[in-house]
Amino acid sequence: MRKIIALKFSLFLLLLLELSGCGISDSAERIVPQRLILTGSSTVAPLAAEIAVRFEGQNPGVRIDVQSGGSSRGIADVRSGVADIGMASRPLADDEQDLFSDQIATDGICMIVHLDNPLISLSDEQVKSIYLNEVSNWKEFGWEDAEIVVAHKADGRATLDVFVKYFKLKNPDIKADVIVGDNQQGLKTVTGNRHAIAYVSIGTARYEVENGAPLKLLHSGKIAPTPSTVASGAFPMTRPLNLVTKEPPTGLAKQFIEFAMSAEVHDLVEQQSFVPIKN
Amino acid sequence: MAKRPLSEKLDQLVGLLVRSSSALMVGMFLVVTAAILRNGLSGLSMEFLTTIPQDSGRGGGIGPLIVSTVLVLGICLLVSIPLGVGTAAWLSEFSGSRQVVTKSIQLSLDLLASIPSIVFGLFGMVVFCQKLNFGFSILSGGLTLACMVLPIIIRTVYFGLRAVPGDIRQAGTALGMSQTRILRSLIIPTAMPAIVVAILLGIGRAMAETAALIFTSGYVMRMPESVFDSGRVLSVHIYDLAMNVPGGETNAQRTAFVLLTSLLVINLCASQFSGRWLTGRRA
Amino acid sequence: MILWSSNRLSPSRTDMLLRRSLGLLTCLAASVVVFVIGFVLVESLPAFSEIELSRIISDDTWHPADPDNATFGLIPMLVGSFLVTFCALLWAAPLGISIAIANEFYPSRFMSPIVRRTTEIMAGIPSIVFGFWGLTTLVPLIANIQAPGQSLLAGSIVLGMMILPTIVLTTEQALHSLPNELAIAAAATGVGRFAFLWHVALPTCRGGILSGVVLGLARAIGETMAVLMVSGNIVQIPGSLFDPFRTITTNIALEMGYATQTHRTLLFLTAAILIAMVVPLMAVMQSLNTEQSHG
Question: N or C: which end of chain A has fewer CB within 10 A?
Fold first, then answer.
């Protein structure tokens, strides 16, 4: 019997809660200012998460949540206010110049294939011919007779933008077999399919290889995909990893961004096979 | 008479055919669940259920995710049960002879039940996360799910209330009880099992949901500190491990095992309850 | 209930209060759907002014975020949705109906309870689990036949399994509601089991069976996560069962996280189209159910 009375009470309470829900959330945000939400690039997310853990360790009471979803999501979330800081693994586009970005590392993009694949390197022309479906069988690269499974990124992904710009391709011309979202999904496609090829962040790919994923990073022509070639600028396809804010960063966001750009986290950047920014 | 053996043969043939299709379905069910049950059970331990995930979920356990799931379900039920029971009570007890009103309310609920979950996700993301400023949070996810399970709950409770014999209402009225009193002391207690079934069905539906949660309650794997934190639920975890994490299959299978067995228990309870109390009426 | 119609004498104040507040809750519950649909419509309205709307039909590719050369063709995804639903129904509908027939007309003491339980449990399996199974077991199997494995075939197998319980349960309910007199009359006149099934039971329950299929259809069109995991998500009209494709639901799931401006508006328009496809199905089902109910 008590339960039923309680049920009816909660019913009215909830109505009130629903009506005043907006106000509650506002005040809750004011009471807990020590919280940052980062969303965006799946390339930056693991690094940002590591930096966040160290930052939280040094600043008790602070909570930093990191969610991936693509650079465009990061930028969209910063614009809409859902996130405090957006993560973008590309420079800001022309129509994004109203935002503020701070570079925390540099990354390269390389082609990956399955470990069983005997291929060592691909020239730019070869990559182009694969993605335009002019070459569609591994036989042509001296491997077994099997169709090449071409993995391509979804629209709005920074890696795609960098890839398409570098190879001077038009996105609609690319003939892919699988569309992937996160970097991880690209890696997963290649580890799960011997005949697949994809392009991903060098940092993310190297991290996975160290963790035992059956992957191989292809050389671009003669240049190996390593942090040192990215750092020296010898590796051709590189891009900045940025933290983006709507306004010039202040308060906790400023503190965090400065921390992420400082030498204190260079070891974390290197651990993820990215290249730290050295002043 | 001469045709008889032929029709009997035809009958047997059809019998064989339809029974083998039954067997085919059972076979498919076994194929799908066997892999998850077998692989999921190995390495499953209390530790897996309680520790935090590590290395994008490849290592560690699913402790915080279970907490997030329970919180999302809690918010969902906290909103949908009172709203659902209230609506069902009005429809069953107070709608009177207003046929048009009742019909259109039922139509609106049928319509709500038919809306694909991804549309709820879209709706929840913009209304709860952005417009109401809850952000990617357990609250947003729970409220989105509440909208989604509302029709199931109203329907189940409504049938439960209608199954309460009219004698009880008449007896209450004859004793001079007020409507409030009759509802509170006679009808709701009699229909309590239906409310329990509604809760169970709501949990079953909500726990199975992924699409509506990815963009409302978010991906964060950490232990939530309040309902305003983002929290990853079990189904989203399976999705992420399966799609985005190389080498994540083992833990995806374990998580799927946990999700499957809890849903199994919940659904079995629901069907036991509804079988026993709702006089055979399936919700 | 009639007892309590509003002409009851002198309702007490608490009663009035209860009635009012429950009425308020009911209004709230009933308005949720208006809110959801209305919101989707309002958000998709700008599409009418932002782009030439005929482009969603005339453009044959989908690159809504391309800054220089945006295209908005929804047709490949609409075709993808229809094809995968059609292929799923193609095998799941006959199978589901025959399982229901087995349960009702050819019961076996050993099998029937197992089949019933299986159907119930299968109905409660989350779509993510089907998708996970499809991704880890089915897709590699199909990839052995023809790469890449994520294909129309994989999508329709997974979807079919998901809607199978719905079809079985609804059909069974329809067959079960046949008046007993019919069966008795049939037995009395010496009509065999199959003849009764074929000439009496199935035609009589046509409406109920169809509504089960329509319910499955609606569920299949709206399904997202399982299809997303096994379809490869390429925006193209699949040329064969082994080609990858993308449906309109998975398109929303893939892109709604980061879409802005026209792109975002178009995703809402897609959701509106999705609702517009499901609502008539609901209407059809309602009418089938009314037609089918035996007084």
Answer: C
